[in-house]
Design goal:
Layout (H helix, E strand, L loop, with lengths): L11 E10 L23 E4 L2 E5 L5 E6 L9 H16 L4 E4 L20 H11 L4 H4 L3 E7 L3 H14 L4 H4 L4 E2 L2 E2 L5 H6 L21 H16 L10 H4 L4 E4 L4 E8 L4 H19 L6 H5 L3 H14 L8 H6 L10 H12 L7 H13 L2 H9 L5 H17 L6
Antiparallel strand pairs: 1-4, 1-5, 1-6, 2-3, 3-4, 6-10, 7-8, 9-10
Helix pairs in contact: 1-9, 4-9, 9-14
């Protein structure tokens, strides 16, 4: 069994990038052209010191992740950016490169190609049940944040805090306003698709916000066992395990003592991603310490109270008006009634100062959010209401440069 870490003793971060062709930004299902071992054979993981490259469900997505849990996030914005640059160098002979943000703006679902090598039996099973050509399966790039807990007591504290932060994450990290060449009016289309991509078996995703369960036994009873029962008729060979099929916005891994947060859209560069991760961690630390709201009050928050706020932030981003009393208290709001989600994040950032040890690029990313809002807002401001395909491609070429150079997109 992996070593157990206590609350906030370490972190795991994962960034997913789309692989596209350099000339026209069409998807390039070529992750197996760089995920190769010394014998030239495709493999799922390539360890490169502190950062590892990994495959994902589709062959046009590649993941960069911390190789091991890390005690500090310092230096990882640069480390991830270096790996983006190295992957771009390796893809260059193939005429490909990495594309940031949470959705490809022009891709159509039928273009998707599944990873065909290690663990492809799992992906094939998901495809057979759900048809993974949908945007919610094949066109979504996220940032995952893994946080540890040592036992049930720590799990209860961490899970309660995470549940209160999840609904407002789209208002901090939305970066997917465009679908198939159209600005949809939603800042976070990735999560709009994600929240319904397993509707055929609703037990897998639930209502995105996890149920208020605070022990491993209760989690098994309320979440894993219903997932197992739902999968059984569709997966007679038992390929899919409930632990790995859980698709809520935060998932518990009791086998390794961690909770993985999955509701952060990928940003324009690693510095922006790490700035958001630091902000989330700072707020969670405050909640776990019960500085503003007791653990009992945190745990009492219901899915019925939290899920509507999540949907509102998916659909309105940082402009969403928040009136849920528990969330206002959790974010330390003492101002006027029904502040925007941007107001809440701004107040928390001002109070917590999460960039104390961050790089200048991360500090600029946070300052840009405070001044100009989410990346989705900045993208739509740059493009206008009905942009041409050429304008969209031009913007995404800017974003490609941002990813490799750790540069923040400012309106």
């Amino acid at each position: 069994m992996p070593a157990r870490f206590s609350l906030f003793e370490c972190f795991g971060v994962e960034l997913e990038y789309m692989i596209v062709q350099r000339d026209d930004l069409r998807i390039a299902p070529w992750s197996d052209r760089v995920l190769i071992n010394a014998d030239g054979l495709p493999v799922s993981d390539i360890e490169r010191g502190s950062v590892t490259w990994s495959n994902e469900l589709t062959a046009h997505v590649i993941e960069l992740k911390t190789t091991d849990p890390v005690a500090s996030l310092d230096g990882y914005a640069a480390a991830f950016a270096n790996e983006v640059g190295e992957l771009n160098r390796r893809f260059a002979p193939h005429g490909a490169m990495l594309l940031p943000t949470a959705m490809h703006p022009m891709m159509r679902p039928e273009e998707a190609v599944l990873w065909a090598h290690d663990n492809n039996d799992i992906y094939a099973a998901f495809d057979r049940i759900f048809d993974c050509r949908g945007h919610g399966w094949s066109n979504l790039q996220s940032v995952h944040l893994n946080l540890p807990f040592a036992d049930d007591t720590e799990f209860a504290r961490l899970h309660a805090a995470i549940r209160l932060v999840l609904p407002l994450l789209p208002a901090l990290a939305a970066s997917s306003p465009i679908v198939e060449g159209k600005i949809t009016g939603l800042p976070d289309n990735r999560l709009a698709f994600y929240r319904q991509n397993s509707a055929k078996l609703a037990e897998l995703c639930g209502r995105v916000i996890p149920e208020p369960v605070y022990t491993e036994a209760d989690y098994n009873r309320a979440i894993f066992e219903p997932i197992g029962r739902a999968l059984a008729p569709h997966d007679p060979a038992g390929v899919l395990e409930p632990v790995f099929s859980n698709s809520r916005g935060a998932i518990a891994r009791f086998d390794r003592g961690s909770i993985e947060i999955r509701l952060l859209d990928l940003q324009e560069c690693p510095a922006a991603d790490l700035a958001i991760v630091r902000t989330v961690v700072s707020l969670l630390r405050e909640l776990v310490a019960e500085k503003l709201i007791s653990q009992a009050d945190q745990q009492a928050a219901t899915v019925d109270e939290l899920a509507p706020v999540f949907h509102l932030c998916v659909e309105q981003g940082d402009a969403a008006r928040i009136s849920a009393p528990t969330l206002l208290k959790a974010f330390g709001w003492k101002g006027y009634d029904s502040p925007t989600a941007h107001d809440l994040w701004g107040a928390a950032i001002t109070r917590l100062q999460p960039m104390a040890s961050a790089s200048p690029a991360e500090q600029l990313a946070q300052q840009t959010y405070l001044e100009q809002g989410t990346l989705a807002r900045r993208m739509t401001t740059a493009l206008g209401v009905n942009p041409s395909p050429e304008a969209i491609i031009a913007l995404y070429r800017q974003l490609v440069t941002c990813a490799e150079n750790n540069r923040i997109l400012r309106a």
